[in-house]
Amino acid sequence: MTDAAVAEVTVAEPREGGVREEERSLASDAWRALRGNPVFWVSAVLIAVFTLMAIWPSLFTNTDPREAILAESRSRPGDGTWFGRDIQGYDIYARCIYGARASILVGVMTTAMAVAIGGGIGMISGYLGGAWDATFSRIGDIFFSIPLLLGAIIFLSSLPEFFNDNYFLVIMKVVLALAFLGWPSLARLMRSSVIQVKPNDYVQAARALGASPSRIIRSHILPNSLAPLIVVATISLGGYIAVEATLSFLGIGLQPPAISWGIDISAAIVGLRTTPHMLFFPSLFLSLAVLGFILMGDAVRDALDPKTR
Amino acid sequence: MTTTQDTTTPSDKTSGVTYTPEDGLLLEVEDLYVEFHTPDGIATAINGVSFDLHQGESLAILGESGSGKSVTAQAIMGILDMPPAVIPGGHIRYCGQDLLSMPEDQRRRTRGPEVSMIFQDALSSLNPVFPVGWQIAEMFRMHRGVNKSDALEQAIRLMERVQIPAARDRVKAYPHQFSGGMRQRIMIAMAIALDPAVLIADEPTTALDVTVQAQIMALLDELQQERQMGLILITHDLGVVADVADRIAVMYAGRFVEKADVVELYSAPAHPYTRGLLESIPRLDQKGQTLAAIGGLPPNLMRIPPGCPFNPRCRRAEDVCRRDRPELREVVPGRFAACHFAEEVINA
Fold this sequence. Notes:
The structure holds two protein chains of two kinds. By secondary structure, chain A is an all-alpha fold. Chain A is 69% helix and 0% strand. By secondary structure, chain B is an alpha/beta fold. Chain B has 13 helices and 14 strands. In chain B, helix 4 runs parallel beside helix 7 (180-192).
């Protein structure tokens, strides 16, 4: 027997010259693929810079974004300031830096909330199936039928305005609106990947070896079904940032004196033909932030999906 | 039957309940029925199956695909998906305790430390995202609350026990880095980790090469002898069971059609179906001849024919076979067969 076992090993698994092959797992394979992908590095740098801006805007500028110098209203880039001044005489560069906070906060918190709600509900409907699945899927369908932007407009404009002066509460209002409308797509995705993982033999084997339902979910279903959710959540983070800017542009998201790229874009419209720099810089920052997250999602998807390698 | 609620001295199984077999009797399956309620109708997968399993004994359940052998295993383990499966009747007793009427949580705690199972395809039975050592160690952490490093140490010892070379180096490797035979060894290590009294092996070698098959069977045999487990070996391969099993139960359309000692069954089958199976084994000394096969297909489980379920495929079938279903009866001492003509078959 022992001889036979050794024979089997030598036939089935030739070891290469004593050199241990580096341990390979899905995560380490994915990291290897990511490392070699320039798109990943570009998006990682963009995301890092914008995150830094959101946390420590004073690292990038010493100018107070609320310091209005009306005498220099609409001055062009280079006239004492990098990006020029807007109609109120605000320094556009400082406004762009400080505007990152609202966008990143809304994007990250909305994504976290949508992933928690959508992932949880998707897991429940996929794992339990039957009546639970039918109920949650139909509830999801109802939310899914509401267009994100239109729904958010109605939601936000119908909320009382008494806490509009608290920066964090206003952000939370936007986050709640977007998360409540955004979770169904993540729930659908999670449900389908749970249904795909659940009938696998290793889930059956875990049951046969006495694993409790919660352990089956934590150790077996969750790690094997999470990848698509991560990818879509990253991509939709960029989308939520864009929607936040849109809502602020329309005047129903963040309100001045809060600083947001959307608000600045809205304020710059008046000078579209005469002073386009007022519009250009906030738009550029917004586009780069959205682009960063979408590229990151793309790179992660390519890395996690072995078929694209 | 002795069940003690163990509160003063914690048992090593941590379930709080100890199971002690009486006279070595581990498992009693009595008149078990399993049905699948599907939109197309009710499929009766198991039709009154009964058997006993004692310590140190190995029973092979032999049958074609769809004969109900895997469903029997799943019913014993309690991992049938219900619905669609329904168990309308029967008992499964482990050390005198009826598993079917046990609360789910208590029953779950028997899986692993008391009754354990090995699956057919070891690659898909191992979680692809975790190292194998972690997965074996999980058994100790899950059921015994052993800490991480001790559990890993025990996992390495188990990997050595199932003859995985360089176990200490390979404990952090992932399932796809192992060959089929090695994966099955890991699956076996997980299944025997908590010293179960009963081990069910559901076609443990089907997905493997013939040479590796023999090694895995030898390992199972060795472990069974060493730990005096009751082994239920489910297979469709007559060759695989010959060396390991003590007794064989042949299953057809959800019923046992023959139960016998392995040597006796091989030398003189008492049921035409068993005879057909034995004749269909390719033999080197009959090279060039046409392989004897059993004509036809197993019955649709939603429409099992009246009379003997095997009658449409049986060469011996007479009117009585199409009319009356033969019960499993003792043909000669220690040999059971469900055939009206068992005596003639056994002497043929």
